[in-house]
Amino acid sequence: MLRARTFWEQRPLHPVVRLLLLLAVAVLLCIAIGFIVASGKFTRFDFLALAFYLGLSAFAWHPLTAAFIVMLICSVGVMFTGSGGDLLELAIALCLVAATCVPWVVVSHAVLLGVLTTYIAVYETTLTQGGVFGVVGIAVIALFVGLAFRLVAAREMTLLAERERAVKDIESIARESQERIADELHDGIAHDLTLVLFHARALPRQPDDAARQVSLATIEHSAEQALHSIQSLLSLMRDPTSESRESRSTRYGGNLVTAVMALGNLLEDAGISTQVGVPSAPHRVGPTNEQILIETAIEAITNIIKHAPKSQSASIDIRENDDDVELVVTNVAPSAPTRHASSVGGRGLHRVRQRLSQNNGQLEADKTADGWTLRATVPTITRPAN
Question: 168-189: string of b/e by CB count within 10 Å (b at 16+)?
Fold first, then answer.
């Protein structure tokens, strides 16, 4: 603590100490004025005493200015009056200087005190035998008292800074937990319930038993997935520190090609003609980016089913370039896409864009002449040379 730079910075007096100082100065001024009135005359000693008290009061607002005022007044008193009282006052004032001023001012005050003490001891007789040691002792005590006040103030500031930092960390953790819970709700449960709702509405209008069986199977599977996501969410809410992303990380086995094929089948089951294009060779994408692309594909297909259920056709393509891998999802709708399916998007597209940005990827989503398109890009993993 004593070596810390902030410890030696100029600092104001603590509000309580400032109040006590002003009360003490007020009492001393009253006493001095009382002696002046009682004696019936105003001497230079009285003038120096009043100026010294006013200089002390300045420590409540401008410590550096007050320190130089006190040093000047006490120097004048010692040099021109030979008063040992001014020397003692200078020694006592070292307490306030050490508590508030920067080191060079403290050192200057101590050096001046040493010079004036030497002068009084050599050229004046106002100090009794051993008086020099008394002045030195008072100065040392005042110095340690001032440093103690400075230490208390520095510790208080450190504790306040740590408290503020802790509050910010707690708020950040709370926001992160809220985001994770919202992600679980949106990316897992909302996707599954959208499929359940869509097929439940379409079930009475299915033309044959085969189509009804497909809808029933989709409803059952999506309901199970939703239940699994709810269990994962409850685990997250009970233990926010756990990494509870199981519902999404295990969805489609964490494999992008599998996810794209399955999502294409979902659109086909929903009556939307869908083309799926995947690379013949394994794509060079890291696990984190692959999971983000899966979440992006889920969000895109969910938006098609939710906001454009009467789409005439759709396509899902994985395109591998030299430096990146693209996921492109398009659809052709009989009418203009809604605002939710536009580039503005809701929470889903906003969160997908955030995740891609955090992993050096990007997202483009916008209207087209006959529907809308979504393009997500992530960097590839550089393969080591043989």
Answer: eeeeeeeeeeeebeebbebbbb
- CA 130, 135, 141, 144 dihedral sign is negative
- Check pLDDT > 70 for residue 322: yes
Residue 155: predicted pLDDT: 84
CATH number at residue 261: 3.30.565.10
The confidence band for 111, taking pLDDT boundaries of 50, 70 and 90, is very high
Q: Does residue 383 register a pLDDT over 80?
A: no
What's the pLDDT tens digit per position in 161-212? 889 998 888 888 777 777 777 766 666 677 777 777 776 776 676 677 777 7
* Residue 330, CB-side half-sphere exposure with 13 Å CA sphere: 14
From 166, 185, 205, the end of a domain falls on 166
**Beta-bridge partner residues of 371:** 332
CA distances from 130 to 12, 112, 127, 325 (A): 35, 20, 8, 88
Which residue range forms the structural domain that includes residue 112? Answer: 5-166
Q: For residue 328, what are the β-bridge partners?
A: 317, 375
* Span 106-130, average pLDDT: 82
Q: Is 27 inside a domain boundary?
A: yes
The residue out of 117, 141, 166 marking a domain boundary is 166
Q: How far apart are the C-alpha atoms of 169 and 171, rounded to whole Å?
A: 5
Q: How many domains does the chain have?
A: 2
* Structural domain includes residue 232: no
The amino acid that residue 102 corresponds to is V
How wide is the angle at C-alpha 20 spanned by C-alphas 14 and 23, nearest 5°?
Answer: 140
